[in-house]
Amino acid sequence: MFRLFLGLVLPILLLVGAARADEQIGSFRLVDDPSVIVLTGEITRNAPLDFRRAAQKRPNARTMVLASRGGLPGEALLVAMSVHERGLDTFVPRGQSCHAECAYIFFGGVRRNADGEVSVSRFDPDAAGAGMPIGESELIDALHEFDTPQSLIDRIVKGPASVPYALGPTDLRLLEPGDVAVVDPAPAPDRPSPVQNKPTPPKPELKGDLTPGGPELGEDEFELDSPVFTPVVPATSVSIAVYEELDFYGRDLSSGYTNNIAECARGCLGDNMCRAFTFNSDPKIKTGPNCFLKSGVGRLEQYRYAISGRVLRGGEQAPQSYSFGAIDPTQDVEQGMRFSGTELSGNVVGSSSVGECRQACIDEEQCSGFTYRTSPKQCQLMGSIDSSRQSKGYVSGTKRFVTIPVADIIPIAE
Fold this sequence. Notes:
Strands 1-2-3-4-5-7 form a six-stranded mixed β-sheet. Strands 15-17-16-18-14-24 form a six-stranded antiparallel β-sheet. It has a three-stranded mixed β-sheet with strand order 6-8-9. The chain is an alpha+beta fold. The longest helix has 13 residues, at 73-85. The radius of gyration is 26 Å and the shape is elongated. It is 21% helix and 32% strand. It has nine helices and 24 strands.
């Protein structure tokens, strides 16, 4: 179905897409200077994917400029981890601010400089809302990995809930590697002091309006220090194993909307943490998430509109096929249908949705199908199906054993 597209069009699209000046990708802005990515707004659910798309278009970026009042904590931490892994510096320009969850990204920089205001707020796990859930221990571990001073970590996890804390000169000095004092416990007699300050790296100077849709920032409005970011050296060989009608379910790093599978694949290739992706090609999806970047394959599910890719690096070999029990919700589930047959004892369970009942049948090896009664909500797993009949208020699904072969293995030019 998609093989001609995947084999001919996808490799071409993966190699194109040069960034244009002043392009807005979600809350991230690409300006004329190719060494800069700017965060200009709220950190939303799509922020991790938007950042990866921006970084893909700015492969030689070395500085993340921050102008944001924060947003979803889990998504902010994912962006911060990506910034840290890519070796980017972070900078808050004069006249701009980086508040609350934006500070996580600031701390993720290799070198962290601020002429503007940086403040932290107490972490609230309930603030995730519909975003990615994150625990306090996960946040603390990441901040330690970023070499965040313990005093600031305490402010984030123990500080007053309603009072933000603005970082002062002492806090910023602790965050600047060039200003870290090196103490010699046994100074030589001719040394005037046991404390020696390393030279402070110059701070980038940025002028202009950073708000989305604001005036264009010309290439002369950036004064940045010498490059400190070294792009990740690609593996000796990279390819993508593509599977049709296969959903790599779970293990999501981020999700968002892309125009086509090529954009989804590029997002995965541009992220060191991404090992697989699933693209939902359902034409009914116009704005909602249809691209899911993943840290691994996860559980296997058949889904008619799914196209999944597994990124292979350094000569890794892909499975030629995946075999598993499946109930495709687009093909194997019927509304207004009731099954009769051998019921699996002890498997009539309260369930909040048809999806949960379908999943329970997939997970049970002896299950051949299910019948779900919508009111009251009741799920019956079937060991065998003898007959079926139309019945209002019921939904039923049939389980099949499927083998999904690899559709194509696409080499990616380095």
